[in-house]
Amino acid sequence: MAALTPTQLHKRASAAWNRKEEWRVLYETAYEYALPQRNLYDGSWDSGTRGKSKGNNVFDSTAVHATQRFANRMQSGLFPPDKKWMDLQPGTDIPDDRMDEVRQALQVYNKRFFALLRQTNFDLAMGEFLMDLCVGTAAMMVQPGDSQNKIRFTPIPSFLLALEEGPDGEVQNVYRKIKTPPENIKRTWPDAQLNEALEKLLEDKPTEPINLQEGTVYDIVDQQWRYYVWHKAANDEADIIVERKLKRSPWIVSRFMKIAGEVMGRGPVISALPDIKTLNKTLELLLKNASINIAGVYTAIDDGVLNPQTIRIVPGAIIPVSRNGGPQGPSLQPLIRSGDLQLSQVVIQDLRMNIKKIMLDDSLPPDNMSARSATEIVERMRELATNLGSAFGRLITETMVPLVRLVLDIMSDEGLIDLPLKVDGLEVQIVPVSPLAQAQNLDEVQNVLQWLGIATQLGPMGMQTADMEAISDWVANQLGVPIDLRTTQDERQAAQEMAAQYMQNQVQQQQMPVDPGGPPPGAPV
Fold first, then answer.
1. What pLDDT score does 1 carry?
2. Are strands 161-165 and 224-232 parallel, antiparallel or unpaired?
3. Gyration radius (Cα) of the chain, Å
4. I need a surface site. Which of 30, 228, 398, 460 has the fewest CB within 10 A?
5. Would the pTM of this model clear 0.90, i.e. be above it?
6. Do 228 and 242 touch, CB atoms closer than 8 A?
7. Is residue 262 part of a domain?
């Protein structure tokens, strides 16, 4: 596949958008109840009614709060702000005699990586990224920045994207909707070639936003990434105004969970959607019933005494009826209320607990307690890791690993590092050391320490089966201990030689003959 023609590009993107439209109702409902402020499916993008009030149909904030809690917990567990959450370590292809050298070099790259990351908007972007991931699909662009911010992270709402998968099920091609004034086109893409329609718009309406489309497509023939920006004029013809070749795709697209054959993901919000809708409707009916109990609804008979057309009881309502009991009954009486408020509270409490549990917001014990111990925090992370299940592996594969590779590539292009090795798991591997990853590693560490305790009880023969140096290095790697806090192989060899020399000196002193008339060995002269 060579460079796409405008017709081919627009047809391919249109097919992707048609497939995306199948998800509109599901995602619109999920965003309406869980992330109403980020909901672009309600027409706020298409109609341009930005700043309008959202969430008017939301009567319970459990899903909104649980979504924010999910994003916060995932960020603190996988990408904690201002902390180290991954480590670059030598892969299996590195010879043993070069391990220390490669570890020292990778430690320097690791420090530069996080020093640079702390100066960017990564933490802010990751928070928005994880909120979209709670619905099902999250996307972020990682691009070179300017002299102040070397790397720019831009979270993109899923509404603006249409995706195409590659042969292995990974997201490969990405199409995006863009709305920008004509006067910003040249500032955004200096190499843009404007057509007649855009030139006219630039002259007549320079500040009125127009619709453009962007595509990042992999050329399987040239094995080259291509980047396009095109404009669709009124005559339904697409004109490519920007065409570039890229070294890599700038996109990070992650799905919380997906089904074979589906491109978009399904997250905890979609799993909890039945309970969320039921809870919302229950609260709506409960509030209506409460308003009736407070204001009251009345019946009135038209007996010539009471005129229901003129009487007004505020707040409340009057319902004309033929009679109110007895032969005639009273002229005005309250309408009998219905509904069991206590039963409604039980149903609401159960629904709220189910929603929190599905969205991983069922912390035990409650984390609003003071003076939390380190053991409690570890157990909380371990519980979260267990509940995540396969989603944890997908987050590492589709988010952390490609993110680190992209940032390292940009740092290499900018001359910030010189990384001669490939980050492919064989020469250099990315090892998660975030609290969530360490919680999973603790199980393996405890198994090894338990075995070591048993080997110690077996005596010298049991200890001969344990390589203490290898165990110490492995435990340090699992716990994410920095390499500069550990001794190198040369330093260990030197320490062993000094210990052996000391023992030899002690043995020699003990074997020296003792002079009967002189002081004992070791006594001061």
1. 47
2. unpaired
3. 34
4. 460
5. no
6. yes
7. yes
